[in-house]
C-alpha cells in the first residue's frame, strides 16, 4: 500500500504535466515554422503567455460547483478541448501551406488542393508510401483531437480541486500578459511574448466563409469592368496582325531563380548563353517583373490572372472567372485573326476551362504524340513539347498567323529527375528519353538534401529556358514574337518565407518596331531584368499589352 500510493501520485503528476505541455504547445506554437527562433534559441519560443488559457481557465472557474451551471462545466471543458484540437489540426495544415504556398489554408476554398498534394506525394514517394502516410496523418489528427479534449478535461479538474491557487495563478499571469502586451515584447523572429495565436487562428477560420462570400460579391463587380470588352475586332492587336506570337509560362520561374546567389548560377548561365544565341540570330529582348497572385503552386491562378487581367488568387475567383465571358489575351488574338492553340502537357484529364480561354485547338498530354517516360510530375520533357509544337503547328507551311500559349512543366516540383538537352533531330517521339529516366536520380534522394533540392530546382528552370529559347534560336522566323514569364516562385522550402511573389517576364522579337512600342515601360534590355526594373501586378499586364499593340500604341 505504501508503494502503491507514491506510484499512483507520480503517474497523476506525469499525466497532468503532459496535459499541460500539450495544451500549452497547442496555444503558443506559431503557424509558420520559419517564425520559430533559429538554432538552440528555439527553446525561447516557450517563453510565451497564451491569453486563451487565461480566459478559458477563468470561465471554467467562474462556474459554480453545483447546480445546472456546475453540471455544464465538464461538457464546456470538453468542447474547449475539442475546439483546440481541431484548431491545432488546422494549424498543422497552415504550417504546410506556409512552407509550400506561403499563405494560410482556406478551410472553405482549398480542399481542391488535396488532389494536387496527393499527386505530388505520389511523384515524390510513390503511391504505397503516400497512401500509408495519408492514413497515418488521418489517425494522428483524430488522436490529436482526442488527446486535446482529454488534456483540457484533466486540467479543468485539477484547477477545480485547487480553486484558490488557480485563481492566484491566473491573476498573476494575466497581469504579466497585459504588461508584456503593452510593452510589445517580442522573441527572436518577431514572435510576441503575449500570445494570442489560437484566438487569431480561430477568428481566421470562423471568418473564412463570410470573407469568401464578400470576396465573391466583389469579384462579380470586378469582372464587369473591362475597357476592352466592346473593342471592335479590327482595332484589336493591330500591330501584331502580321506576327506569330508565343506566350509561354515557365513553371516556378521566380525572381529568386535569377537573384538568389545560393542557387542561381545555372539560370544565369542559361540566360547568358541564350542571350548570345538569340542575338546572333538577330533577336532582341526586354525584361521586367510581375507580381504573381500565388507562390509555390496554383499555377492556374497565375495563368488566368495574366490572360484575363483580373486578380485571381483563390479557387472561388478562378471558378467564377472561367464561367464568365471575360476577354482573355488568347481571345484577343483570335479576334485579330490568329489561329489560337494551347499546348498544355500538364493536362492529363478533361479540361473544360479551356473553352473559356478561346483556343481553336488544345494539345494536352494525350495528343502531343509522346512515347517516352514521365519525369516525375511532368508527363514529358519540355524539349519534346517544343519539338512537337514545331511539327504540329509552327513548322507548317500552309497556315495563317498563330498564337500559341505554351505551358512548360519540367521545372515543376519536385525538380527531379531533370532531363538534359539533346539535338533537336534526336527528339523523335520521345522514346529516346527511356534510358535517361531509368538511370536518373529520383526526387526522394534529392529532397533529403536541402542544398541539392535548391540546385536541382535552378537546373530544372534552366532546362525549361533552354528548351523554349533553344527552339526560338533554332526555328524562329523573322516575324516571331515571344512573351515568356514565370507563373510563381517555388516553394518556401527553396526561397524562404520572406521571398516576394515576383516573377520575371520577357518579350523577344526581331522586328525593332515590336520592342519600340514598349520603350516607355522602363524594362531592361536583354533576357535578365535589372533588380530596379518596374514591378507590376500580374493582372495589369493584359491592358498594358493590348494598349501597346493596339491603335493607341501607334507612333505619333
UniProtKB/TrEMBL annotation:
Top-level taxon: Bacteria
Transmembrane segments: 12-30, 42-63, 75-101, 131-153, 165-184
Gene3D superfamilies tied to this protein: Alkaline Phosphatase, subunit A (3.40.720.10)
Sorted UniProt keywords: Membrane, Transmembrane, Transmembrane helix
InterPro entries per record: Alkaline_phosphatase_core_sf
Protein name: Sulfatase
Organism per entry: Actinoplanes subglobosus
Amino acid at each position: 500500500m505504501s508503494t502503491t500510493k507514491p506510484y499512483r501520485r507520480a503517474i497523476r503528476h506525469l499525466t497532468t504535466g503532459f496535459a499541460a505541455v500539450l495544451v500549452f504547445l497547442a496555444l503558443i506554437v506559431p503557424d509558420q515554422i520559419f517564425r520559430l527562433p533559429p538554432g538552440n534559441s528555439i527553446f525561447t519560443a516557450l517563453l510565451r503567455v497564451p491569453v486563451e488559457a487565461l480566459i478559458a481557465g477563468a470561465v471554467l472557474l467562474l462556474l459554480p460547483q453545483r447546480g445546472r451551471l456546475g453540471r455544464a462545466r465538464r461538457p464546456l471543458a470538453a468542447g474547449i478541448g475539442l475546439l483546440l484540437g481541431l484548431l491545432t489540426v488546422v494549424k498543422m495544415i497552415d504550417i504546410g501551406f506556409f512552407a509550400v504556398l506561403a499563405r494560410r489554408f482556406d478551410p472553405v476554398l482549398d480542399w481542391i488542393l488535396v488532389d494536387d498534394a496527393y499527386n505530388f506525394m505520389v511523384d515524390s514517394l510513390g503511391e504505397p508510401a503516400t497512401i500509408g502516410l495519408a492514413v497515418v496523418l488521418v489517425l494522428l489528427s483524430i488522436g490529436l483531437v482526442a488527446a486535446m479534449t482529454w488534456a483540457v478535461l484533466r486540467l479543468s479538474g485539477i484547477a477545480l480541486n485547487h480553486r484558490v491557487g488557480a485563481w492566484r495563478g491566473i491573476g498573476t499571469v494575466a497581469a504579466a500578459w497585459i504588461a508584456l502586451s503593452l510593452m510589445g515584447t517580442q522573441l527572436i523572429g518577431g514572435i510576441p511574448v503575449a500570445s494570442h495565436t489560437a484566438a487569431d487562428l480561430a477568428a481566421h477560420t470562423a471568418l473564412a466563409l463570410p470573407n469568401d462570400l464578400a470576396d465573391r460579391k466583389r469579384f462579380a463587380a470586378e469582372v464587369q469592368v473591362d475597357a476592352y470588352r466592346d473593342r471592335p475586332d479590327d482595332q484589336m492587336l493591330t500591330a501584331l496582325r502580321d506576327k506569330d506570337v508565343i506566350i509561354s509560362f515557365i513553371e516556378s520561374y521566380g525572381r529568386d531563380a535569377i537573384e538568389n546567389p545560393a542557387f542561381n548560377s545555372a539560370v544565369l548561365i542559361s540566360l547568358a548563353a541564350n542571350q548570345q544565341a538569340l542575338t546572333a540570330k538577330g533577336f532582341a529582348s526586354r525584361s521586367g517583373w510581375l507580381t504573381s497572385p500565388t507562390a509555390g503552386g496554383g499555377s492556374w491562378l497565375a495563368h488566368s490572372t495574366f490572360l484575363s487581367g483580373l486578380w485571381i488568387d483563390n479557387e472561388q475567383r478562378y471558378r467564377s472567372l472561367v464561367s464568365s465571358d471575360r476577354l482573355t489575351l488568347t481571345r484577343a488574338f483570335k479576334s485579330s485573326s490568329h489561329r489560337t492553340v494551347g499546348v498544355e502537357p500538364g493536362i492529363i484529364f478533361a479540361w473544360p476551362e479551356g473553352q473559356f480561354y478561346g483556343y481553336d485547338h488544345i494539345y494536352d498530354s494525350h495528343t502531343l504524340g509522346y512515347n517516352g517516360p514521365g519525369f516525375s510530375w511532368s508527363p514529358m520533357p519540355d524539349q519534346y513539347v517544343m519539338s512537337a509544337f514545331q511539327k504540329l503547328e509552327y513548322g507548317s507551311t500552309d497556315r495563317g498567323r498563330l498564337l500559341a500559349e505554351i505551358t512548360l512543366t519540367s521545372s515543376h516540383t519536385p525538380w527531379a529527375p531533370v532531363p538534359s538537352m539533346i539535338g533537336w533531330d534526336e527528339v523523335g517521339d520521345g522514346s529516346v528519353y527511356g534510358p535517361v529516366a531509368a538511370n536518373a536520380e529520383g526526387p526522394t534522394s534529392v529532397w533529403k538534401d536541402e542544398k541539392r533540392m535548391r540546385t536541382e530546382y535552378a537546373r530544372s528552370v534552366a532546362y525549361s529556358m533552354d528548351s523554349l529559347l533553344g527552339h526560338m534560336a533554332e526555328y524562329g522566323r523573322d516575324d516571331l514574337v515571344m512573351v515568356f514569364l514565370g507563373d510563381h516562385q517555388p516553394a518556401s522550402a527553396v526561397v524562404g518565407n520572406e521571398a516576394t511573389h515576383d516573377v520575371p517576364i520577357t518579350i523577344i522579337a526581331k522586328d525593332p518596331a515590336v520592342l519600340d512600342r514598349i520603350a516607355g515601360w522602363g524594362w531592361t534590355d536583354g533576357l535578365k531584368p535589372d533588380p530596379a526594373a518596374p514591378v507590376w501586378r500580374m493582372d495589369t499586364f493584359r491592358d498594358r499589352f493590348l494598349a501597346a499593340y493596339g491603335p493607341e500604341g501607334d507612333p505619333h
